[in-house]
Amino acid sequence: MKAIRVRKEKVEEVRKLAEKIGAKDKRRFIKPVGEFVEIPILDGYERFFEGYEIIWQSSPVENPRKELSELLKDRIPKELHRSIPNSYKIIGDLAIVKIGKEIEKYAHDIANAILISNPRIRSVWRDLGKEGMIRKPRLELLAGEGSETIHVENGCLFKLDITKVMFSLGNHHERHRVAKEVDEEIVVDMFAGIGYFSVPIAKRAEKVYAIEINPEAYGYLLENIKLNHLDNIIPILGDSMLLTPEGIADRVIMGHIFCHEFLEIAIKALDRRGIIHYHESTPLKVLERPLMRVQKASRIMGKNCKILNFHKVKNYSPGVVHVVVDALVY
Ligand SMILES: C[S@@+](CC[C@H](N)C(=O)[O-])C[C@H]1O[C@@H](n2cnc3c(N)ncnc32)[C@H](O)[C@@H]1O
What we know:
Number of domains: 3
Oligomer: single chain
Radius of gyration: 22 Å
Bound molecules: S-adenosylmethionine
């Protein structure tokens, strides 16, 4: 699936041209990626965009609404058409869709329409949330078969079973951003999962200690180390509260949104000074809370702390955001 990659200031010009000549692929949304924007185009139209960068979109943002409502218009009563999902997640070749209570009677029809409208999809699952500290997904199979897949992101391969471990597409930019910052360092990833951060980081780091408590996620972490031909990740199965190595890291990744109790352990992992990437899900009313928590933990550990960066990763729920704090602790 091809797209034209342009700088943000060029988007309008190129979008208008693509629409005028019928080149724009309406099944995919225009997708911002950092400083750039990807404008999806139909195969065969590349030649009209000489001088522009044409890319292969590895994780496109599908625009299913038009096709889905078209496919479902005779099956679902008109008053419910507004509740037909206008997006769904694609992980590898599997789709995960949120379906509101008011339309759940038609969940299987919606799933079948997704399968028909997107031949790449092998099965469709209903998203029912996540459970506990290991963030185990609650999913219900609606159509098709299979729950194990390989997802490609930023040139890395992630094998996983979507019913056993989560994969947050919304953290994609954050994973890419942090991996780019790493340079021949020792990194500790305290909540490694299947290697979301560890795998891209290992491509640039000297060594990554990847700690994961859930044996199922750990199993995939081992597979993903092999799949990506990495030999500098040290996988550790168990609780990072107990197993985080001390005094060795240039950088610590705390990629769990409920992990403030682990801040002092993260600081202990640093080799005197280093950077901590601390994630938290915080209500907008107490947006400063993650900053205060990092500063407090540094004080308790007798360290100074300089905030390098503080930004939103994504919306978590109404009034609650997932944020990350980058702090230099010394
Ligand atoms: C939700 S995932 C991280 C998602 C990731 N940051 C991303 O970019 O999508 C968090 C992982 O931390 C693991 N975990 C939770 N508590 C842990 C602990 N005490 N020690 C080690 N791993 C833990 C969970 O099993 C899960 O695989």
